[in-house]
Structures are given as C-alpha cells and as structure tokens.
Amino acid sequence: MLFGKRILEICKKLPNYPECNRIRGQLVARGTSAGANYEEADGAITKRDFINKLAIAGKEAKEARYFLRVISGTYLDPEELKDDIKEAEEIINIMSSMINKSTGGKRS
After folding, report:
1. Which residues, in sequence order, are bridge partners of residue 76?
2. Which domains can be identified in the chain, with CATH numbers?
3. Alpha-carbon span 41 to 44, nearest angstrom
4. 8 Å CB contact between 68 and 84
5. What does the alpha-carbon distance between residue 108 and residue 20 come to, in Å, rounded to a whole number?
C-alpha cells in the first residue's frame, strides 16, 4: 500500500502535458494495482488463484517500474525516483519468490 501511495504522490508532480497525462494514468493504475492484487492473493480460496494474483501483482509492478524509468530524467529528477524504482524491483522479486515457493519452482 505504501508503494501505491508513493506512486500517487509522484504522479502529482508530473507536469500537466498531454503525454504526461497518459503516463500518469498508466502509472497510477499499475502502481496501485500491484498492492490490490497482492491483497486479492491474500484472500484467495485456491492455490491456483493465489499464484495467479501474485503473478498479476508482479506484472503490474514491472509496468510501474517501466513508467518510473520513463519519467526518470525526462520529467522528474532521477535521484527522486531511484528508491521507488528499487522498491518496484523488490516487489517484483518478492512476488516471484512467493510464486516459486508455492509451486516448488515449477510454473505451468
């Protein structure tokens, strides 16, 4: 949830340019969806659903990381975004690790 809240704060700082509006929408959607899908995984009824939601959370974090990289140095100071990019990478790694532990390292 903290990552999602941080994404919202970052998006407020983007300039009001047409191209930034598109990026802002994508970043808000992906940055908040990672946490929402993790929450869904936490409440999953089946192991398959649990793994699927973790995989979606990881994919959303990857997309958020991508958009953070796009705006880094283009619209916002890279130094300001480096911790957020690192956090996205940590979320990706955590989701991947949880999936691997749940599947015994096997993906279907």
Report:
1. 72
2. 2-103 (1.20.1440.60)
3. 5
4. yes
5. 37
Burial code of 64-98, b = ≥16 C-beta within 10 A, e = fewer?
Answer: bbebbeebbeebbeeeebeebbebbeebbeebeeb
Residue 17 DSSP code:
-
CA distance 42 to 72: 32
**How far out from the chain centre does Cα 14 lie?**
18
pTM as predicted: 0.92
Token output for 7: 């994404």
d(CA 3, CA 50): 21
Task: Report pLDDT digits (tens) over 11-69.
Answer: 999 999 999 999 999 999 999 999 999 999 999 999 999 999 999 999 999 999 999 99
